[in-house]
Amino acid sequence: MPTPPRPIPGTTLFDGTQARKGYALNRMCYSFNSALSRAEFQRDEAAYCARFGLTPAQTRAIRERDVPGLIAEGGNVYYLAKFAGILGLDVQDLGALQTGMTKDAFKAMLLAHAG
What is the per-residue pLDDT for 115? Predict the structure, then answer.
């Protein structure tokens, strides 16, 4: 049997349990590949979330733009990047939000650890 991974403080591990928990949320975020879906979401966010069956906690996190909350609710960063794009954010913005850093500090940390 494989050894279970050691927890990393402050990190939500995206595993099978989180994947099941976030299925509806990630499915909704995937829909944002379509410009029509993005426009529909922007017209009525609550109805769009309800259409995909998001939980109250997921809907709250969407409404509050709470990226760490979305990750805790089963969001996968690759799908959440679709949602972030609607907000004009990129993956480095998401990383900064997850770590509580500014985007510039997050980029500097990445560069300090590269090579």
Answer: 66
